[in-house]
User: Fold this.
Amino acid sequence: MQELYLPIAAAVFALVVVVLTVVLVRYRARPGRAARATRDHYSVDAIVALVLAAIVAVLVAVTLRTNDTETALARPGFRVDAVAFQWGWQFSYPSRPGVVDRSAPGRPATLHVPAGTTVEVSLRTRDVVHAFWIPDLRFKRDAWPRKTARFDLRFPAGTAAGVGHCAQFCGLKHSDMVFFVDAMDAARFASWSRAKGGRA
Assistant:
């Protein structure tokens, strides 16, 4: 997305600077020069409006297409149920009943996932609006009361661990609402899975 947004923003900024510079230099007040009456340029106004509308249409179309790509669910290799609450996280795994990692005072929860595998996350909240945010993946998704958000994530192979946060202010202890991400390689994930009574 930024490959498209940044060049357009830079071009618009440069155009505005050039136009302002020309106007300020050409039409500035000078000794002995009387102000001239101006006239409307409807054709220029129409062209500018059409160009701006085209730019907006392109950006909206690209944004919607990208959003559809991010929200489309693939065939996951692993599933996680994530529950947000004031002020912590709980992670459980449908394929491993009874395996739950829940935040406790002074101890953030850990999200265990296999690296290089599509992971489907089901996200919900028990109380107010929270946000599931993993800066290393540049990914954020809001958790709304009475709704379940489902999305896919892929954790790059070789990622040892990361940190996730709640990105919505949710109360006095919002800053405590963090979690660790442990993206395990195939061998370590198989060992963890066996220890938890599941299949690799």
Remarks:
- The chain has a mean pLDDT of 81.
